[in-house]
Model the fold of this input.
Amino acid sequence: MNKYLLKLYVAGQTIRSGRAIANAQRICDNELKGLAELIIIDILERPEVAEEEKILATPTLIRHLPPPLRRMIGDLSDTNEVLMGLDLHYDGAGLPTDK
Done:
C-alpha cells in the first residue's frame, strides 16, 4: 500500500502541464521512491472533477492521503518547495520519516 496519494490537475497538453507532469513524476520516482501514487487528471477532459475539487488554477498538485489535504500550484520545478509544501517527509533515501 502506498503512503501518499497525489493528484495532479492539468489543463490540456501545454508546455506548463508537461513540465508539471515531468516534475511530479521525477519527485515521486527520485524522492519518494515508490511511496506515492500519482494520478494525472486533465480538467479539460473532466471539468466536473475540477469543480468538485475546487481547482482554480493549473497545474495544481494535491496530496489527498494521508490527510489533511495539501495543495501546490505551479510547475513543481522546486523539489524542496514541493516536498515542504505538501508535507512529504523523507530521509533523503526516499524513506518516510516521522514529523
The mean pLDDT is 90.
